[in-house]
Design brief:
OB fold (Dihydrolipoamide Acetyltransferase, E2P), 5-stranded mixed β-barrel, 12 strands, 22% helix, single chain, 5 helices
Length: 211
């Protein structure tokens, strides 16, 4: 079984400014989406920042002194129970884009001591640029992969909505089941977008329901 496990992608250390200046690239099929930055192409990141805002929708606002970014938990939301405004936290998450603005879908959030700030600053000084900012695409336009469907089939969003309703046995439909059965190329991003728009919501960790 160990040989069959899918290895997690490296969570690269960076600043929030680096993320905010990046260009989000959506890939088709099983290829991971990524954020194109001066320091590399990141599908998963590791940042240390202060929580400067928090709401009841499992969202937080992070500030590391270089900029601010929103973070959202869709699973294991209990991680936020002990996190308050003013907490210094280590975040592992995936860059995403909504309305041309970068945000993070958070996988792990945990409090750290102030000593981590100096240590992280030293780590960041060792990073090397692989491209200059002017080499990034000038227009931050994200081209979503098109899913070619015949006129008689449901749209991707309709297919996901129908699956959620069909799989819901009272406590919501498993996100993994919805993505597996829908076979929608950009299913993860579409589900995140529908959550951001309030069309669906997370009823419990890893499960979603329609509004």
């Amino acid at each position: 079984m160990a040989e069959q496990e899918i290895k997690r992608q490296t969570a690269y250390k960076c600043t929030i400014a680096t993320l905010n200046k990046g260009v989000f690239v959506k890939k088709q099929g099983w290829e991971s989406n990524y954020l194109m930055t001066e320091y590399g192409d990141f599908s998963r990141v590791n940042i240390i920042a202060v929580v400067v805002g928090k709401d009841d929708n499992n969202s937080i606002i992070l500030d590391d002194g270089t900029g601010q970014i929103n973070g959202k938990l869709f699973e294991r939301v209990e991680q936020l129970d002990s996190i308050i405004v003013g907490s210094l936290v280590l975040i592992i998450g995936r860059p995403r884009e909504f309305n041309n603005k970068i945000y993070l879908t958070i996988e792990i959030v945990k409090s750290v001591t102030p000593g981590w700030i100096a240590y992280r600053k030293k780590e960041l000084t060792l990073l090397k640029r692989i491209r200059e900012s002017e080499d990034l695409p000038k227009e931050k336009k994200t081209l979503e992969p098109e899913i070619i469907e015949s006129s008689g089939t449901l749209s991707s969003k309709e297919k996901i909505t129908k699956l959620i309703k069909d799989l819901d046995r009272g406590d919501g439909a498993s996100i993994d089941d919805v993505m597996r059965l829908s076979r929608v190329v950009n299913g993860e991003e579409l589900i995140s977008d529908m959550m951001m728009r309030g069309e669906i919501y997370e009823s419990k960790a890893g499960h979603i329901k329609t509004m």
